[in-house]
Write a structure and sequence with these properties.
Layout lengths: L13 H8 L7 E12 L4 E2 L3 E6 L2 E6 L5 E6 L4 E4 L1 E6 L8 H8 L4 E6 L2 H18 L6 E6 L17 H4 L8 E7 L2 H5 L3 H13 L1 E4 L6 H9 L4 E2 L5 H9 L3 E5 L7 H4 L11 E4 L5 H6 L3 H10 L4 H8 L1 H6 L16 E4 L9 E4 L2 E5 L2 E2 L36 E5 L8 E5 L2 E2 L5 E2 L6 E7 L8 E7 L7 E4 L8 E5 L2 H9 L7 E6 L2 E7 L11 H16 L9 H6 L8 E4 L2 E4 L4 E3 L5
Helix pairs in contact: 11-12
């Protein structure tokens, strides 16, 4: 079998050793970054101005001594921090494949990330995972990967693929795979379902097993921890994080475009616990990435909340490198890859110069590193029922006195409320949207296998006054999700995504107002990042014209089909009571 690409493998050479010793007769550094005040993540301190000597992309020495170098970059007393690492994210959420993502991430000093490709895996199985890994090759970036553990996330949805432990096993032959990615089927873990434990044992035998256990507590959490789960990024309360940390589960504090948990979890960071915390974004949209930042944004917020800069950088770099057993990353120290950034003020972290593998890759907010063509991507068609019509979206009720379940949505959280309310009905007795009470119809239409499945329900929180929005980004099975004020616009928004092979759309008065095409698995664009941002801006403006007050309503919409995050969700199979882990009827008992 062909050898897989190495995980940016270092080679320790006699020249590196000579540069480290300062032996000019034995070797000259390729680059010296001089007069830099280094963030020391080991001692949680800041050094006096010193020099960093780099050989073949690796740091040979960090010393005030003067060594010979072919090139020199004078930091002029600026601060120098290690490259930042996102501990858990889905690159698909940026709507960009890795080769386009790095152009937005590197100017924000993100030089590495642990990607869980389960979004594309749910559409294209191993072919999708391997496509992303191929596209990430030969970039000035450290792309680490998790082997997607839950495809589908659970049996309560229909995805485009089903990956077993046997299917996943070959991925661990690749050194770029650093973990079994988030084990979302947490009931399957604590209930010891055989196929789930097969995957857990596969991860433990080769690497780590990362977790996903929203609101899990008590005896079931004990069992989840007993399975060897190493981390969790789903905490939303301090008490939840403290309980998990006490069981040896590392806490990834998430601050992304959808879920923002830093403020609630910030008190978990103390001098005694800081080494057990990492930062992650989970999901980050391209405009947010460009305008607000990435892990650098979390650092700025943390420091503004009172965290000292060296600790913030330790959490954002070395902690994650240590967790994923990458001693070559996460610090400005000998033998590490020369991934670092320069900035002027620790109280307002704004990286202006970024190096990765000893290469200058970003300056003053612009990516200046090498580019590569987009890897050819596999096709994934959007297949909706041939007879899909407004009638397909009708919701008949058993009686005019029926009470219905309603999903209570918070645009800043992934968890939802399980509400009940009185429906508004039409003359035929069908439940319909009611904008006066912000109760809107939502549908999830299976798009992979032609099953004809359509899950129907109602949701509170979107606040649309007219029209509809639709998306083939619908975690994790990525069926087509649509929410709207009327069936005509819902149908128009859904149909608009067939010709583009997926994407996101806005429709009103029976006509399509805006479309963001996402032809790569219905999740990512094949266009440059700036084009995608412009298309998304137009899409969001169209959504705002419908009366929606949310910055990006497509982000919460994408999580409404996810049946592994409490409390009430909607899959193509129907309403899911996540707390009971079962399909329930629309009409409440």
């Amino acid at each position: 079998m062909n050898q897989p690409p190495q995980a940016s493998a270092r080679t320790i050479t006699p020249r590196l050793m000579a540069v480290a010793r300062g032996d000019e007769s034995g070797g000259t550094a390729d680059l010296a970054i001089t007069n830099a005040r280094v963030i020391d993540v080991f001692n949680r301190s800041i050094t006096d101005p010193t020099n960093i000597y780099i050989c073949d992309g690796i740091i040979a020495a960090v010393t005030p001594d003067k060594h010979k170098a072919k090139q020199s970059h004078d930091a002029a007393g600026c601060y120098c921090a290690p490259g930042l690492i996102d501990a858990h994210m889905h690159v698909e959420s940026t709507m960009l494949p890795p080769s386009r993502f790095v152009a937005l991430a590197l100017p924000h000093a993100t030089t590495a990330a642990v990607f869980d490709p389960h979004e594309i895996a749910n559409v294209l199985a191993l072919e999708g995972i391997r496509y992303l890994m191929q596209d990430a090759e030969d970039l000035p970036f450290h792309a680490m990967w998790g082997a997607s553990s839950c495809v589908p996330s659970c049996p309560l949805e229909t995805s485009g693929a089903d990956l077993s432990a046997e299917d996943l096993a070959p991925l661990f032959d690749d050194p770029r795979v650093v973990a079994l990615a988030e084990m979302m089927n947490f009931p399957g873990v604590f209930l010891a379902l055989p196929d789930v434990l097969d995957k857990v044992n596969l991860g433990l035998a080769h690497r780590l097993v990362d977790g996903h256990a929203p609101a899990l507590s008590g005896d079931n959490l004990q069992a989840y921890a007993a399975a060897g789960i190493s981390s969790d990024h789903e905490c939303t309360t301090l008490a939840e994080a403290q309980e998990k940390l006490a069981l040896g589960i590392r806490i990834f504090i998430r601050e992304g475009s959808a879920a923002r948990n830093l403020e609630a979890l910030f008190p978990i960071i103390t001098p005694d616990t800081a080494h057990l915390i990492s930062f992650c974004t989970d999901d980050r949209h391209p405009a947010d990435l460009q305008d607000d930042g990435h892990i650098d944004n979390i650092i700025r917020q943390s420091i503004a909340m009172g965290l000292d800069a060296p600790t913030a950088f330790m959490i954002a770099s070395s902690n994650t490198a240590h967790h994923f057993r990458r001693p070559d990353l996460g610090a400005i120290a000998p033998s590490r890859w020369a991934d670092c950034c320069l900035f002027d003020d620790p109280k307002d972290f704004q990286p202006h110069t970024v190096f990765c593998k000893g290469m200058l890759v970003a300056q003053n907010g612009d990516y200046i590193g090498p580019t590569k063509p987009l890897a050819p991507y596999p096709e994934a068609r959007v297949t909706l029922p041939a007879d899909l019509s407004e009638a397909s979206l009708r919701v008949p009720l058993s009686s005019k006195n029926a009470q219905i379940r309603v999903i209570g949505m918070d645009p800043h959280q992934l968890v939802t409320e399980h509400l009940t309310d009185s429906p508004t009905t039409d003359a035929a007795g069908n439940a319909i949207s009611d904008t006066s009470r912000d109760i809107l119809k939502i549908a999830v239409i299976e798009r992979h296998k032609g099953t004809g499945n359509i899950g129907l329900g109602f949701i509170k929180g979107f606040k649309l006054q007219r029209g509809a929005i639709a998306s083939t980004v619908g975690h994790d099975a990525h069926n087509l999700a649509v929410v709207g004020t009327n069936d005509e616009d819902m149908l128009a928004a859904a149909r608009a995504l067939v010709d583009t092979n997926g994407g996101q759309s806005v429709a009103v008065d029976g006509k399509v107002r805006a479309v963001l095409p996402l032809p790569i698995a219905g999740l990512m664009s094949d266009q440059p990042a700036q084009t995608v941002i412009e298309q998304q801006t137009a899409l969001l403006q169209a959504a705002a014209s419908l009366g929606c007050p949310h910055h990006d309503p497509f982000m919460p919409l994408s999580f409404m089909p996810l049946p592994v995050i409490p409390s009430l969700k909607l899959s193509d199979k129907g309403l899911v009571d996540v707390d009971k882990f079962e399909i329930v009827t629309l009409e409440a008992d």
